[in-house]
Design goal:
CATH class of the largest domain in chain A: Alpha Beta
Number of domains of chain A: 2
Shape of chain A: globular
Order of helices and strands of chain A: EHEHHEHEHEHEHEHEHEEHEEEH
Number of helices of chain A: 11
Strand content of chain A: 15-25%
Helix content of chain A: 25-40%
Largest sheet of chain A: 7 strands, mixed
CATH topology of the largest domain in chain A: Dihydrodipicolinate Reductase, domain 2
CATH architecture of the largest domain in chain A: 2-Layer Sandwich
Oligomer: homotetramer
Structural class of chain A: alpha/beta
Low-confidence stretches of chain A: none
Largest interface: A-D, 48 and 48 residues
């Protein structure tokens, strides 16, 4: 059994890790930390876990965490970078669900996250945990940077086009809509149901922190610089991300059939990326609670603009599920172990 | 492997059966019928099932269904009673999720369901599938009447009080709130999101079909006649039932501690009934997608009115999950086989 | 023109006062206070008011407020009682939407609100602003205690029964469901959309602050002591309260027709209480944004339990609308001046 | 008083016309037709209108409608074109909220709406009722084609850019999100709350009927052909449209300040278009129930892509409110008569 620790177990990604790990046949959840709730039973805070998690929140302590085989950081940005090194030195694998190790450039990280990076020396070693791109590296790493929710949906949608050099990389557009759980479990006025229910809005149009992360990934795929307009929106539901992606053919038009074939081939062996039949409109409900990304390809009026629709559950493929998919790879387990979870419809 | 058939696979209880059975280690879904969608792949209608269900909808046919070990009816009322006999004669076990075999009195059934019962001779044999009451009978039956969603939440909440004769059976009140999926997958004006979203209302206050079913169960528990005021409400969410139950002590007050103890003891060995700690307020989200019923007991101001709060997911413990719990019992499997599903929070 | 001030203009009742007063033909909104947002334009915080409110938030100041004819307190409990006296001395009428002046018994107020009442000498003078009960007193008062949202819906529903002495006052039940805006505009974890969306729960079953207020009103109507079991619930929508009220006939059954007639007669001259036709189920959407209370009467199975359904918009008839209805009375205006607002359906 | 008739009074645009007209000081609602509900009181179907609308639904009859000064068609596409001519001949002004008279090209209309146009001879005369573009023509017309909801939000957002020739008209993108009431009051499976609640999806990506209408309007503004990629989405709320518009500068970049100034100037005298301060993110809740369009302009990272955010209430500025704004113009009334309605927040 893999002994797992979770640092920051009270947020939505933390409790989602618990939901999945509690039934994972190869994992024992040994430690769950929460400074604020130390001493409280985990299932007292989360009654949905009664009967399956017999752990008490503890204050984060490297010595205790060092008894784990793997530690997940489900913490706000800026925490994992303070503890990762000590854990790695104690032979603990680290999977960070925050943004601390996602960017390769410490300076740019500092600009977007408003603080100096505390551990830049590990950035080169950290592997960006998008299995559909970095599977072999993931298998060998001890430090995994789990992608953000928006970046997962956008990259999986754009990758085949960019890898083949089919579209103009200077005019990519990602219009993305997220459920409110993406904002986390924080007492914020703006996230009250009275504020977000029955309403829709864009936010951070001038620049969202996930932009450099997405761009870094798209540029690696394209082998070229990329110019992306990324507009995130808040939609009145709890879970789910729907990315609507727009790209223009760079040289010549490619037929919709060829595009469909390209996507199907690119993801043929991927367990968690599902290219829908031509003409489909993926619905976030069909991946709610599951680790799937469902994708559809459109070419309105047969024109020179491709429209890609890509949906995930922001807390699963966009966070906890992908983290566990990465853990499976890092420990040599089948990639879908513990992740055979079907979406909750309706 | 148990070969299972589902008649009426396009409704919400049908697709919920599929969600659970698709991952059940002892079951193979062999037949899924739908007159309207015959010839269509199941996962074309339900993309959430892509990759796990490789079946095409077929028109209902007794000869085909006779090849199954068990057939679930997830049909509108009035269908199972036409086919059950033929299947039983072919040695197929029948689990009916509709109301056809829930009432023992064919005449009363006719009054509430607006048609004559087509198969009254099987009513006596049919076992009412509330495992917390009828477990031993369920194990031996070949014809199982799966309880309604409202009746499950109300009976599990009231049972301990009635079995012990603590409350006045002539003045029971069940104020119950249901998510909209309880109305099924039917094109009805009243169930449009524009009609039900952001709004709350009671309905069928003068008399709802689940009333005689609940009363039948409560009277069996009380060993006495019961007078229940049952008011169902529609709440703007998809899944979940919250029953708020009111009863008055019949002879003398019982302390809240004693009540808490009574409930904990009554359900101590039940895998799917969870009595929350004293003072709790169960939240439907904590059972969403799971087969659990969570219950809390209150005694406002220490007075002579007991308030029981009981929550379930109407499609799981209130329908498909309970049906599979019953199937497990009928086939000698562990009661929770295939049902270790945690609620989706948030 | 009546010069109006609003103390605490940043909460939901404050902005709802502004929505209605901005178009009230006899009112000029002169002062809106907010300690936190002093200096900011009101319509910068509330873009829905752009073009109709040309006021900047100011810190609360008695001298400034003294320039008003009426001051509304849309503040947390405990604020109005500190300022009311000074304003009354300056000849300003005070309408308090908080709970400070609702209870006649200062001691009981202290028990439920967790602090000593700072101004008990005004409690006797304060008029409880339920126009359907206290219209004549309201016209003459200078200090108005605006009823709570739950109390408004429950009292209007029970009053006719209690005034006529038809039901057992020792076993009244009010099962009430509220939208989340009732919790106010405060950054609280429990009120995030991720916590309250797609979920339903009861809360404060052991005792909610509105209980003594409701009981006080019901006892005045009944001329007798009253024992009420009051269970509030949170329903996943923004606006609306649905009260489901249960009472048992005390002496003899009254026919549903007679009950219907009683309610229609009791509220025949009320502009904001609408008794629906027999058999109706009021829907909160039909009063959303309006000052109406819609009521329906049921007698399930012709038994001895009466079920009253009563709906209001918690922010209008349950707060700001009722406050303005009271203001109209206090200033000799037609009761519905500025309040001809139709519900937003769908 | 203007005598108004409404043909098709049972849909959402019909009842929204009634909500606004009931309080319009210059209008008397004389006739409301509904074939299906003829003989029923309007307020029996819509309890939100109790007390303000004293009309019974009647079957549509030209002779009866001829007694009106104006007739609104809130009917499915294909109805108004059958009756408009007869009414115009009887000197009745016609305001059509359906799509029958929106396109100038009868052939193209036939392609998109799947039937031959029954009255092509009136297409040239019909005025497209976007007051911000056609005010003077609207004042003089007797046949008004009220714009669709998507087209209103998209055109108002793009107009200033196109009129000034600032952007590449060959690569316009409109990513638009609508609440579910846009689908109308029809019993459709896909619009059940169980299907649309807690979920988000795109639809009709290959081509939506509003595309030619939008293109026609944009081309008129640009004086050039336009190539628009239009992707509509369904968002889980009842009311509201949020258009996110993308355009690339055609010649040289324009500064954000200049763009902001351009929009403010363009709409300076418009009562129902409100350009928000620079940096704003309009929220659909801030126009819910009102006739306003709120717009914000962004230029992410100062690049060469402009992002315009434009929000309306699909049933008000996107349908009934705009129809009444047009009626006011057609009858020489102040443009905002009866339309001073503030948005319902929260």
């Amino acid at each position: 059994m893999i002994r797992a620790g979770i640092v920051g177990g009270t947020g939505y990604t933390g409790v989602e890790l618990l939901r999945i790990l509690a039934l994972h046949p190869e994992v024992e959840v040994a430690v769950v930390t929460s400074r604020a709730d130390a001493g409280m039973r985990v299932d007292a805070l989360y009654p949905s876990l009664r009967g399956v998690i017999d752990v008490v929140f503890s204050a984060p302590d490297v010595d205790v965490l060092a008894g784990c085989d793997v530690v997940f950081f489900a913490t706000p940005n800026g925490t994992a970078m303070l503890m990762a090194k000590a854990l790695l030195e104690r032979k603990v694998k680290v999977i960070d669900l925050s943004a601390d190790f996602r960017l390769k450039d410490a300076k740019e990280w500092g600009v977007w996250y408003g603080m100096a990076h505390a551990c830049p020396e590990l950035l080169a070693e950290a592997v960006y945990g998008l299995p559909e791109v970095n599977r072999e590296k993931i298998k060998k790493t001890r430090l995994l940077a789990c992608p953000g929710c928006y970046p997962t949906s956008v990259q999986l949608g754009f990758l085949p086009l960019l890898e083949k050099g089919l579209v103009d990389t200077k005019h990519l557009i990602a219009d993305v809509k997220s459920g409110v759980s993406g904002a986390g479990r924080k007492a914020e006025l703006a996230m009250l149901m009275s504020e977000t229910g029955e309403s829709f809005k864009a936010y951070s149009v001038s620049g969202h922190r996930h932009l450099p992360e997405i761009t870094q990934g798209l540029e690696a795929a394209a082998g070229d610089s990329v110019n992306l307009t990324f507009v995130p929106h808040l939609t009145p539901m709890v879970r789910g991300i729907h990315a609507t992606l727009y790209a223009q053919f760079s040289h010549r038009k490619v037929s919709l059939d060829a595009l469909q074939g390209l996507y199907e081939q690119r993801y043929a062996n991927e367990l968690f990326v599902d290219v829908l039949p031509s003409g489909s409109h993926p619905d976030t409900r069909n991946v709610r609670g599951s680790n799937m990304c469902q994708i559809a390809i459109h070419q309105p009026q047969g024109g020179d603009t491709v429209v890609i629709l890509s949906v995930i559950d922001n807390l699963v493929k966009g966070a906890a599920g992908q983290a566990i998919q990465n853990m499976n790879l890092m420990f040599g387990l089948p990639e879908d172990r513990g992740l055979k979870i079907l979406a909750l419809y309706p």
